[in-house]
Amino acid sequence: MGSETPIHILLVSYPAQGHINPLLRLAKCLAAKGSSVIFITTEKAGKDMKAVNNITDKSATPIGEGSLTFEFFDDGLKDDDLIKIGFDGFSKQLELVGKQFLSQMIKNHVESNEPISCIINNPFFPWVCDVAYEHNIPSALLWIQSTAVFTAYYNYFHKLVRFPSDSEPYIDVQLNSSLVLKHNEIPDFLHPLSKYQFLGELILGQFKNLSKAFCVLVDSYEELEHDFIDYSSKNSILMRSIGPLFKNPIIKDANNIRGDFVKSDDCNIIEWLNTKPKDSVVYISFGTLVYLPQEQVNEIAYGLLDSKVSFLWVIKPPPKEMGLKEHVLPNGFLEETNERGKVVKWSPQEEVLAHPSLACFITHCGWNSSMEALSLGVPMLTFPAWGDQVTNAKFLVDVFGVGIRLGYGLMENKLITRDEVKRCLLEATTGEKAEELKKNAGKWKKAAEDVVAVGGSSDRNLDEFIEDIKKCGI
Ligand code: UDX
Prior knowledge:
This protein is of the alpha/beta class and 474 residues long.
């Protein structure tokens, strides 16, 4: 492979952390396997990434046998433009400027005799497939959520099964031949009572032009989601599971190339974890977009106080433009938990989850966090907010057997009390249930290690994907 001329692959990511992370991991894997990869997102995201990480734009960094270059496009908006708050207007603006940028870049590559062989996008940028199609370039989608959630959207879009509607909002959904989701377990962007239905529309836009992508890549793995991967193949979709991307050993040396928007205010997190006994610390994080009501934060804080566990809690300040107040912790909380607790604004999550001192993870069940915890063998207390998170919670608890249900999603509007927090924490950290969760989590960890090793299903699928691109011959 080393002496071959590298193929040029573009990856275009929506400027959100939960999208950038999996796309950047894929970019590094493709580069490590010999491709010349260009990672594109907006200038604003690029500015945040450059402020925190050691990355530069427009110059290629060697990774394995290939290379990775960052390119950022101007979203055409002032930093304080209110369009940025509403996803809908912002997405339309990004489509407008992104299409022009991408077309120009494709032309530049043709002129410099380095034509683009494939363009990969994620579900919030369905227009990328249109640009690829216009330029006669093969395109692929990196689906950044679970394959089960992909199936839900697919079934909804093609009206293959009944979903909750205005007249029947509480019906169950038969996801495939063996699995039924309750109305509050479907990705709630598809629910008639959700206030985020416009996001469902955005994602369904991807299903409208799915036929333009020759392949759907998923950051998941065979052993975990075999039935759903198989279901997609039966529907004539070339689906390749290539996850867990972050765990692929070929990108180990590129660990320093990261897309974090935030830097931790505390450099001693791992040192602090080193001082804690094995299986003793509860890690709490709700991803990058979810902001819990203050009242709920209070209940979690008192639950931690009452249960007396050690904990590492990520509490991020909300982005300024959202106009939300920063969370405050109950009076005396930090003093009382000084020895056994740490509160930070950001953590190196992969390292934290891999640390032997971790006992369990209170998570909002974003797919990246779920994948990271599953494949690092960490049991979870599921506390979803919206979207795919409620479906992921169902799978973590009832299908994968690694979780205890704590929250039910913001649509349920239910305050989880300190007593429930305490009860679930104790159940997940001591006794028979804790043992069972740990055993199941260990099984998924081992499976994850096997699939990304040389010859494992995910690693093979990645190789086959690159071969598919080469066969297209651009
Ligand atoms: C969004 C959606 O909310 C989620 O439902 C969807 O599945 C993916 O896109 P987000 O809420 O940001 O994602 O959560 P998640 O998918 O878990 O991604 C967060 C990423 O940030 C993870 O890779 C996690 O490791 C990283 N992170 C988060 C850190 O590195 N440090 C932190 O302190 C918090």
